[in-house]
Amino acid sequence: MASETSVSGKKETFSIGLVQTACVADREHNLATAFDGVRQAASRGAQIVCLQELFTSEYFCQREDSALFDLAEPVPGRSTTAASALAKELGIALVVPIFERRAPGLFHNSAVVFDATGERLGMYRKMHIPDDPHFYEKFYFTPGDLGFQAFETRFARIGVLICWDQWYPEAARLTALRGAEVVFYPTAIGWLAADKNNPDEGLAQLDAWQTIQRSHAIANGVYVAAANRVGHEGPAAAGVDFWGRSFVCDPLGRVMVEASAAAGDVLIATCDRTVLENQRRGWPFLRDRRIDSYAGIDRRFLDTPWP
User: Fold this and answer.
1) Which residue among the candidates 12, 53, 137, 181 is catalytic per the annotation?
2) Which residues of the chain form beta strands (DSSP E)?
């Protein structure tokens, strides 16, 4: 019979949950729907639950409109105060993405992490900010200034990155180097109409999104969990069709659970520290890193001789 504790002295397993929802213009409806998903996840055994990016509203970054800054809220604020109480009530750790109003004219795309006591463990502010058609985030968000972090919850040490961060191996690596056992990616990603209607391009984008995150799990020997939104938002003939398909993969990149492409969903996955340990023993990428030879990685592009 397997031991109940891993070599780290913690229990061998911990359970995580992802809540995927379709958002509407009614903020209170979105909050209630998300929290209902959290309750479902907890009732099914999830100890750490993550909500999707900007879960209290529709994805407003499809256009530039200064009136939409009114959607932002401070931390602590109404949503995070309610989330703290919910985490304490259910005895779970909770990752709560938020449109953060830091100061007048200063806003971030953030995620607040609460422990099972309701205590706020800290916050991550999205570091990589996109600026593409229907994803005009640079208009709204200041790049994060808190760095890449890991948070010690009651159940596991977790990292949080947000959406566009998921394309950057540096972000995943630095989060893993902080000791994260699982990296959560609250997300809002999908197809524009032109891409969705191009079957080769559209499917390639979806596959790339999942592949890059699976590669972070493999390269760093961690679990990866992406919580995406679902449904169409914006004008019927334009807008974005969000992929859904939230998923969790193990340290070998194998998809353990995957959500619906068409509707809200709640995913549960059990993470095993024995798997983490054995994967890193067998493929010791952190051991074999040539940290003496990576000079230049902090430069934009090596178009001049180095050093």
Assistant:
1) 53
2) 13-20, 48-50, 93-103, 106-114, 120-125, 131-132, 135-136, 151-152, 157-160, 182-186, 190-192, 223-227, 230-233, 240-243, 247-249, 255-258, 265-272
